[in-house]
Amino acid sequence: MPHPADLAGYESVVPGAGDRIIRIAENAAETRNGAITNATNAAIKSAENGQSFAFFLAFTAMVASIVFFALGNNIAGVALISFPVVMLVRSFLPGKDDSEPSPPPAP
Fold it and tell me: In 1-107, which ranges are E strands?
């Protein structure tokens, strides 16, 4: 956005130029806000998909582990039950938090 004095100068040279410049700035802000909203929604959807896949994988490993224990194959049962347990423990360990979004680029 130009300084108000410059905007008035544009308006005196070309009537309606100030209004057009303001509309351009408003449209640019709306586009930027829309892009940020789309990126945020995509990140949320990606996180939801990742959580669903992790749950499915852990649940499948636990069910398979129970089946192996029931069939008497304790080694396979322990191997498969360790996978969801390790995932659960890892989720509570401190570390780099990838869920924080990066700041938007400067205009």
Answer: none
User: How far is CA 21 from its chain centroid?
Assistant: 33
Domains of the chain, residue spans: 4-92
Report how far apart, in Å, the C-alpha atoms of 106 and of each of 9, 25, 101 are: 28, 15, 15
Closest by Cα among 93, 103, 86, 101 to 42: 101
Q: What is the pLDDT along the chain (107 residues), one digit of tens a residue?
A: 888 888 888 888 888 888 898 999 899 999 999 999 999 999 999 988 888 888 888 889 889 999 999 999 999 999 888 877 887 778 777 766 555 556 666 65
Cα dihedral 65→76→85→58 (10° resolution): -50
Distances (CA, A) of 53 to 39, 43, 50, 79: 21, 15, 5, 20
Instruction: Enter the pTM of the model.
Output: 0.55
Cα gap 49→88, rounded to integer Å? 18
